[in-house]
Write a structure and sequence with these properties.
Pnp Oxidase, Chain A; 8 strands; binds flavin mononucleotide; alpha+beta
């Protein structure tokens, strides 16, 4: 047995030509995200289009990676919500280096970000937390993310205790924002878009930061093409 996995799908994406590429990355990333969401509505083959793999580095220089949901995307960068005392939170507290990718295999497309992580503004975190379903808000209190737990029952008991403490009155204020719940913004210095094409001769366009403005500021990015 060779150990080779999977088949040999030829990637037949549309690709991306220089003349269609904006001077700053945000408009293209946004358009791709919108197209991925629309495709999920139409054809159902892009589940969780905003699933973002986020890589961090621990104190020993070991990389780590997990998937979160990208909840914001604007000129400042993509952002996600999480427990700031989790493994990722502790790692980012020691070393703010971060990389992330959005991948839409059925569309032969991916986006990569590299940069530094910054804690999200507390007001934004609070506003977002209040918009979450009651059960999710309770779980944010019940779970010390990434810490060991004896068994499933212990988790359920922690959830039930939080439910008793903060009963559901149908209001956004029923559950306070946990101190250890927050989020991170990825302040990118490099953004890459990848478009899979026939014969593995893919398109890769990269934007490198040359100024301090946002992901949508054409004066702050230098665009180039790299080989597949
Ligand atoms: C599709 C998907 C979406 C997820 N979204 C989030 C999220 O938005 N925030 C989060 O903290 N964890 C999310 N998770 C769970 C994370 O992958 C991970 O298990 C958790 O954040 C703990 O990671 P850590 O121990 O590296 O800190 C998601 C997992 C999947 C598969």
């Amino acid at each position: 047995m060779s150990g080779t996995l999977g088949g040999r799908t030829d990637y037949t994406g549309e690709g991306i030509a220089e003349q269609d590429a904006p001077d700053a990355p945000l408009p293209l990333v946004r358009a791709w995200l919108e197209q991925a969401s629309a495709r999920q509505q139409d054809r159902g083959d892009v589940p969780e289009p905003s699933a973002l793999s986020v890589a961090t580095v621990d104190g020993d220089g070991m990389p780590d990676v997990r998937t979160v949901l990208m909840r914001f995307l604007d000129g400042t960068g993509p952002a996600f919500l999480t427990n700031t005392g989790s493994a990722k939170g502790l790692q980012l507290g020691q070393n703010d280096a971060v990389a992330a990718s959005l991948t839409w295999p059925s569309m032969f497309r991916a986006v990569r970000f590299r940069g530094r992580a910054a804690l999200l503004d507390r007001a934004l975190v609070t506003e977002y937390f209040r918009s979450r379903p009651y059960g999710s808000r309770i779980s944010a209190h019940a779970s010390e993310q990434s810490r060991p737990v004896a068994d499933r029952d212990s988790l359920e008991r922690a959830y039930a205790a939080c439910e008793r403490r903060w009963p559901d009155h149908g209001s956004a204020d029923d559950v306070p924002v946990p101190d250890g719940w927050g989020g991170y913004r990825i302040l990118a210095d490099r953004v890459e878009v990848w478009a899979g094409r026939r014969n593995r001769l893919h398109d890769r366009l990269v934007w490198d930061r040359v100024g301090q403005g946002g992901l949508d500021d054409p004066d702050c990015w230098r665009r180039s093409r790299i080989q597949p």
